[in-house]
Amino acid sequence: MASRAPEAPLLGVSDGEIDPRRHRSSYLTNKVGGRPDWPPAVSPRRPRCGRCGAPLAHVVQVYCPLDASPYHRNLHLFACSGAECSGRSECWTVLRSQCLEAEAARTSGRPAPARGAAPRATDWCDAADDWGMEGEEDGWGGDAKDETQAEEKTAAPEGTADISSHLQDLSLEELQEDVAAFRPFFISVVEEADLCGEDHDDLEHAQELLREYERREGVAVGEMEGSGGGGEEKYEKTRARHGDAIFSRFMKTISACPQQILRYCRGGKPLFISEPPSNMAQLVPACSSCGESRTFELQLMPALVSLLQWEGGSTGVELEFGTVLVYTCTSSCWTSGSALAVEEFCFIQTDPDQQLFK
Q1: Is the pLDDT of residue 283 over 80?
Q2: What is the 3-state secondary structure (H, E, C) of 281-308?
Q3: Residue 31 pLDDT
Q4: Is 45 strand, coil or helix?
Q5: What is the pLDDT of residues 91-111, one digit of tens each?
Q6: Are 39 and 97 within 8 A, CB to CB?
């Protein structure tokens, strides 16, 4: 199947804290922190740290249906907050879950939300329930979850017994284990192209002309005046003072929207914060479920670090990372009726001097 050219990146930004007294989130909600909201036909899962075995905290939930796909689709990112685990790739987990619209409606006992025309691969916020559901229920408390499950038991028609039985098979200890959670925030979206516009295009063209002139003449314009010769040497020193070229490009790219906490561009190119390994393509493993290759889909950005605050004012170790790159199955494989989320791959860069892999 021929691959379509990726869309321009979409940027996720924080759009206000989720107040459980007013909002109830669902799997259609894009959010930071809180408790994960699984699609109705998918079993809850509590991933654990690959290093210390502790349950992982939920970091980000993204609703991201694909172009011309009949599936609802979510990505959940989890991380360990242990003092010795922060920033290590084996201490992060990415889970992908999907369910057919018919499955979602049948399991919940309510009509599936209208999707209209199939969204593009990058319209992950257009179809999402950015603002949750207004109501008095506590969207994060166990009571609200128990009430929902009770409603599903009485209202669910024939055909959902297999899902209910699977939920009952889950360890009671695993489901009830008290895991610290980050304060939940809505994620809103802006198109990166909208932040630039024609003025930015004109500026980029002017800068490219300037760079071409500098390459041709072997001097930096800023160093020419009063240089007294030695233009090439001063040009090289100027470049050195700016530090690593990849990091400089990273900072320049995000400067149009420094508050971005997430970049989404399935099938596009990731924005590295430091030099990636030369064998990066070989480091990304094939899908463990179907054997297909994986493609880049999204990345978490440095601005997210300061947003991750523990609920209830509790103190704990802060997560530390530069950027977290997420790669997912190219075909987004899924077996209809499956209740188990698929684990995907993440690549973590903590800073320009250290790279950790999963």
Answers
A1: yes
A2: HHHCCCCCCCCCCEEEEEEECCHHHHHC
A3: 98
A4: coil
A5: 999 999 999 987 777 765 555
A6: yes
Give the DSSP H/E element, type plus range, for residue 185.
strand 185-191
CB burial of 11-20 (b: ≥16 within 10 Å; e: otherwise) equals bbbbbebbeb
Tracing tokens 């909208």 back to the chain, one arrives at 194
Q: Give φ, ψ of 194 to 5 degrees.
A: -70, -20
CB-based contacts of 297: which residues, under 8 Å, 6+ apart?
A: 64, 75, 264, 265, 266, 267, 326, 327, 328
Query: What predicted TM-score, i.e. pTM, was given to this entire model?
Result: 0.71
Would you call 87 exposed, middle or buried from its count of C-beta atoms within 10 A (0-12, 13-18, 19+)? buried
Is 342 strand, coil or helix?
Answer: strand
341: phi then psi, degrees, rounded to nearest 5: -65, 150
d(CA 290, CA 281): 18
For residue range 47-66, list pLDDT tens digits in order: 999 999 999 999 999 999 99
